[in-house]
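re the bet — no i am not wrong, look at it urself. input seq straight from the record:
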Amino acid sequence: MVSGQRFGRTWVLDHGGLRVDPPGDRKPGVPYALARCTLLSARTAENFGVLQQAEQQGFTLALGVVTVRPGVAAGVLDSIADVPYSPPAVLPRHRLAWIAVTHPAVVSACPAIAGPMEPRPRPDPTATGYQVLILDAASGSDGALYVARSAQVCFPGVQAASFGRLRQEVSLPWRLVGRDAHTATLRVTPHRCDGVGYADVAAGAVIARVTRTIAGCTAGRPTRIRLTKGIGLPRTLRHAPVGAWDAPDS
């Protein structure tokens, strides 16, 4: 299906709900390395980091021409996102894009059920549960997430496919406003499509982190976030790298 960094033949999910065709000789404006960095910093539908899922379940990235069929439940993922503003998801049609495919582990706590349970039907082999990350290959400023049909975890049946905006974890530049031995106040300027920010110490440096919708949103107003460490902060607060956060925290 994938030859090098391109789709070599057509790939279809959910009986045509999502279709990826080979890109032919079309060239992307976004290079492979940048697309990989962006998509490894993304979040799954369950809000887990794609990097973590890639380490556990694998990760495939290739250039293709993607179409999502009208009728797929668009916007469902957007309604549960913790962001103050998000442009509505637009179904791609014959769009040149970088496509990443991951298969996140299923985590669920099923409720206790009293009495006999109906026998489960045979699993549907077409309900793959794949999550397809789509990044516009022209500019990289537009991202989407397609969640394929999947088997219900706790009850018989199949969960319908859904579609929404793609989000990533981003490290922001920050300026120190004030500090003591255990806390520090940082000034940051998030984008309009950013969720609530928080600060932490990662790999020995201070990172101001937000979850951002990949939708080309403009910068918002400066705000302050607080970093607190019960064991005490380092004497010197070193800046973490800024941009897409595709690195492990340790």
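see?? Residues 15 and 126 are 8 Å apart (CA to CA). told u. also The chain is about 5% helix and 35% strand. so pay up
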